Amino acid sequence: MAMMRTEPSSSTAPQFEIKVQSRSRDNAVYPTSSTTPSSRLATVTGSFCGGEFKRWAPWLVPAFVVANIVLFVATMYVNNCPKNSTSCVARFLGRFSFQTIKENPLLGPSSFTLEKMGALEVEKVVHGHQAWRLITCIWLHAGVLHILANMLSLVFIGIRLEQEFGFVRIGLLYVISGFGGSLLSALFIQSQISVGASGALFGLLGGMLSELITNWTIYANKLAALLTLLFIILVNLAVGILPHVDNFAHIGGFLSGFLLGFVFLIRPQFGWVSQRNVPPGYIATPVKSKYKMYQYVLWVLSLTLLIAGSTAGLIMLFRGVNLNYYCSWCHYLSCVPTTKWSCDTGQVYCQSTQIGNQLNLTCLSSGKSNMYIIDNTSQVRQLCAQLCS
């Protein structure tokens, strides 16, 4: 999964199963007509008893997938490559054809179109008072390959979590984590646009990790689950050091989801059955309190850190703070330069001369020039980026 500045890269996280340790002897549920242990009720729907929890029917995550696909189709419709560009890929698709591979190797729209549709651009957020871009950018994708990888990850991770915890908690975890990823990205990457659901997806991974920690005592295969999850997280974060991948969105989403997991995904740690969930003819004898003290501590600490971090981040963003000035090495978290690629993310500039509908562009960084036939001046920025790429 990858939140992209220009060229997203993703990896799909596999599913894995975690067994819950049975603690049925902590429960005391007897029918009113008998007090013998052999008459115990082993499982009560909706309550923890013998290691089982209520299973939810997932619908929100599939709805998120559909929404992302619909928005991508709408973005391609607005892009209309044949009208706004001199050359396109799969031109037989008409206005749904893609920008050239050189401009967008992921088979998608131009950066100008993504910006128009709500991509994260710090200049517009800070000076244009368009804070809504911190949310809208997580529903946009840079290309077919980008959306395919992210939606597969969302299906594999999100549906399982929604079955376990319900649509309310997982929906909030997804959206807030996406916002956290956008916020950290905006504080570090201020020269390019960013799109993608990867910050929200990393939030789901972070939530899975904190859920394992806060509910540690009820799991049987703790170490295997922890090592598997850490491996998945590290592999996906490692992908973020490639150029044009917004790893700050990954990190911000992961940290947000990790903190939210302690708040939203807490589970009872003792055998406990609510009387309202017991079938007629049975009584529930409470054994212990539902939660342990360390869960309450983690809940309060995580919520405090999340609110304080988000508030401080928003204040710094709207004051125009660039965190790269305060952390000289942090840019390596998003891109590590090698002999194979460069991490230069500077903006491109062109000198233009227009006579009628004929536009002559010269890229100031490379010296390349070309003549274009244009219908409106909104195409100039897109053509300049294409010429200098």
From TrEMBL:
Residue ranges spanning the membrane: these are 56-77, 138-159, 171-189, 195-216, 223-242, 248-266, 296-318
Q: How does it sit in the membrane?
A: Multi-pass membrane protein
What is a single Pfam family found in this protein's UniProt entry? Rhomboid
Q: Which EC numbers does the record give?
A: 3.4.21.105
* GO cellular component terms listed in the entry, alphabetical order: Golgi apparatus; membrane
SUPFAM superfamilies named in the record: Rhomboid-like
Q: Where is this region: Disordered?
A: 1-36
Q: Which family does it belong to?
A: Belongs to the peptidase S54 family.
Q: What is the protein's given name?
A: RHOMBOID-like protein
Q: Which organism is it from?
A: Juglans regia
